[in-house]
Design a protein that fits this description.
The complex is a heterodimer of chains A (102) and B (474).
Chain A: H1 2-10, H2 12-28, H3 37-47, H4 52-61, H5 67-100
Helix pairs in contact in A: 3-5, 4-5
Chain B: H1 2-24, H2 30-51, E1 53-54, E2 57-58, H3 62-82, H4 88-118, H5 125-128, H6 131-158, H7 170-190, H8 197-215, H9 223-244, H10 248-271, H11 276-281, H12 283-292, H13 305-313, E3 317-322, H14 324-328, H15 332-344, E4 348-353, H16 363-370, E5 378-380, H17 381-387, E6 393-397, H18 406-409, E7 428-433, E8 453-457, H19 460-473
Parallel strand pairs in B: 3-4, 3-6, 4-5, 6-7, 7-8
Antiparallel strand pairs in B: 1-2
Helix pairs in contact in B: 1-2, 1-10, 4-6, 4-9, 6-8, 6-9, 7-8, 9-10, 13-19, 15-19
Classes of the chains: A mainly alpha (102), B alpha/beta (474).
């Protein structure tokens, strides 16, 4: 218990961010029309691709002899890029179609 | 200097994510929102590569990093550009799985560091690793793995590679695995540093197993809900990575998607008038046998192509109800042609879009938009139900459950309570489907047996082409 409180104390900034982001996330998409459910899901999918930053850090910090980190890190960067690039491109393709007719 | 510029990069990225998501929920700004979020992502990625410092040490292995990004981008762009509109739902699931795998791999590598560092001394793992740090690693691993394998199963199911699979007592089995995951995760934390890798990798294996059995029993119609849920899982897994590296961009992005994704999941469920628990436990699969026993009375009536064409050509208002059958047949363009041909004959044509028609909410809108159907012609469910009263002909193209009157008047039906398009209000109903096979929910549709309904069997695209030819002859 004490350790948990200590942990929160140490990461107080992060804890605040988590709480605020939960409310913000719920708030900003509260009134989305059902037409946009799929593109929104796809866009959100691309945004969580931010996990690639972690993959880059793992890859960049890996020492040349550490094959586990090198191989897994490399794989993680490839997969993360797929998530980011594919996610944004496919969302754009969906939304491109909404734009034409207006 | 570098790290402080990097912090600014991350702030910019976080703001673009929030702004992007906000703009994505409005049709007029959606596309710009997506591009803004993408720009923020590029800033965050480039910033990390060139400015990140850990104890004053820059990142290395640039050739590895760039070649990995290069490979990922090429595959990503190719797949995203090549895929057909109908296959988009499964593609979103696929990309989501990649993100989940990425999050899991990061956590596994971080664990591996800790393990190598400490395995020489015999000590309890909990003595050398802070509980918060371990929690971030293990949560990232478990959630990322479940999200990865779950998304892959969802992808496979939507593209027809796997079938639904469930067995008796599966929920009990799933809960048991879940408990085992938690037990082995906790056990790993308190085990000896020399052997901690064994319970850790057992946890990974169990998480993968759980992902498989979590998604396998869920029916095709509920897949979008599951994908959306797994999407928010990956967000949370990404946020765990944010805790590991004290990285605010990962944290904001991840939690934002986690929260928004969860709400989106609930909104989707609400559009089907079902609860999330109901979807996950899969009442569709369980109860359809009970209500499948309902005998359908009356007989169906077929209509010839020329009669159907005649009927539509001489009506004032025609309402088209598209469904998954239209998407499978890739008939959206032909459908638009038919709409234009009727329009030239002075018939008013509109589309009635059920929120969950097709395989994802908004699926039909995207599909018809691809065929250049004007935005104003697409009516949402409530507006459409108003207009059916004054409609002469309703043409149903490959939709089934969303027009099933059982949802309104048969309390024993598994879809009872789901809002539907009340097509019976119109004067005539023409139903095009490939056969009398029931839809996703696996239940009979009384609508087909009603006197005002006539059936037009065949592939949606072929039937529409033939209708078009008949229309031109009139």
């Amino acid at each position: 218990m004490e350790e948990m409180i200590h942990f929160i104390q140490q990461n107080i900034q992060m804890v605040y961010i988590v709480i605020l982001m939960i409310f913000l996330g719920v708030e900003i998409i509260g009134r989305v029309p059902s037409v946009l459910h799929t593109p929104l899901m796809s866009g959100a999918n691309a945004i969580h691709g931010v996990v690639i930053i972690g993959a880059i850090i793992v890859m960049g910090k890996a020492e040349s002899g550490n094959y586990v980190a090198l191989v897994l890190g490399f794989l993680a960067v490839v997969l993360g890029t797929l998530n980011v690039v594919g996610g944004f491109v496919v969302t754009d393709r969906m939304l491109e179609m909404f734009k034409k007719k207006k | 200097m570098g790290p402080s510029i990097l912090s600014v990069c991350y702030i910019v990225a976080s703001v673009t994510f929030i702004l992007g998501l906000k703009m994505l929920s409005n049709p007029s700004t959606a596309r710009r929102g997506n591009l803004i979020a993408a720009a923020g992502m590029i800033i965050a990625i480039l910033g990390t590569i060139f400015l990140y410092e850990d104890d004053g040490k820059r990142l290395g292995n640039y050739p590895w990093i760039f070649s990995a990004i290069f490979i990922g981008s090429i595959i990503g762009v190719l797949v995203a550009k090549k895929v057909k509109m109908t296959a988009m739902p499964e593609l979103v699931s696929f990309f989501n799985g990649m993100g989940g795998a990425c999050a899991a791999l990061i956590s596994i590598v971080e664990f591996d560091y800790l393990y190598r560092e400490n395995r020489a001394v015999s000590n309890s793992f909990s003595d050398v690793v802070a509980s918060g740090h371990y929690l971030a690693i293990i949560a990232g691993t478990i959630i990322g793995s479940v999200s990865f394998i779950g998304s892959m199963i969802a992808w496979g199911k939507l593209s027809g590679k796997f079938k639904d699979y469930s067995f008796k007592g599966q929920h009990l089995f799933n809960n048991l695995i879940l408990i085992l995951i938690l037990v082995s995760a906790v056990y790993a934390y308190f085990s000896n540093t020399q052997f901690v890798n064994i319970p850790f990798f057992i946890t990974v294996a169990l998480a993968l197993l759980y992902g498989v059995f979590f998604v396998l029993p869920i029916g095709g119609a509920d897949m979008p809900v599951v994908i959306s849920l797994l999407n928010s899982f990956t967000g949370v897994a990404a946020a765990c990575g944010g805790f590991l590296y004290n990285n605010k961009a990962m944290l904001t992005g991840g939690i934002l998607v986690g929260a928004a994704g969860t709400l989106l999941t609930i909104l989707m469920c609400r559009a089907m008038n079902r609860s999330l628990v109901n979807v996950l436990i899969g009442s569709f699969g369980g109860s359809n046998k009970a209500s499948g026993g309902h005998d359908t009375e009356g007989s169906i009536k077929e209509i010839s192509l020329s009669d159907a064409a005649m009927l539509m050509a001489y009506s004032k208002k025609v309402m088209i109800v598209p469904g998954y059958g239209l998407a499978v047949a890739q008939a959206q363009h032909t459908c638009h042609e038919l709409e234009k041909a009727l329009d030239e004959k002075g018939v008013e044509v509109k589309y009635a879009i059920h929120p969950v028609a097709g395989r994802m909410p908004g699926h039909m809108n995207v599909l018809l938009a691809e065929a250049d159907v004007s935005y104003e012609k697409l009516l949402e469910m409530d507006d459409a139900n108003e207009e059916f009263k004054t409609t002469d002909v309703v043409l149903i193209l490959g939709a089934n459950d969303v027009v099933n009157p059982a949802a309104k008047n048969d309390p024993s039906s598994p879809i009872y309570g789901m809002p539907i398009l009340e097509v019976e209000l119109a004067k005539n109903v023409i139903v095009n489907k490939r056969s009398m096979k029931p839809g996703y929910a696996g239940i009979e549709n009384q609508l087909f047996y009603q006197p005002k309904t006539s059936m037009l069997f065949g592939d949606a695209k072929k039937v529409l082409q033939e209708l078009l030819a008949e229309l031109k002859n009139i």
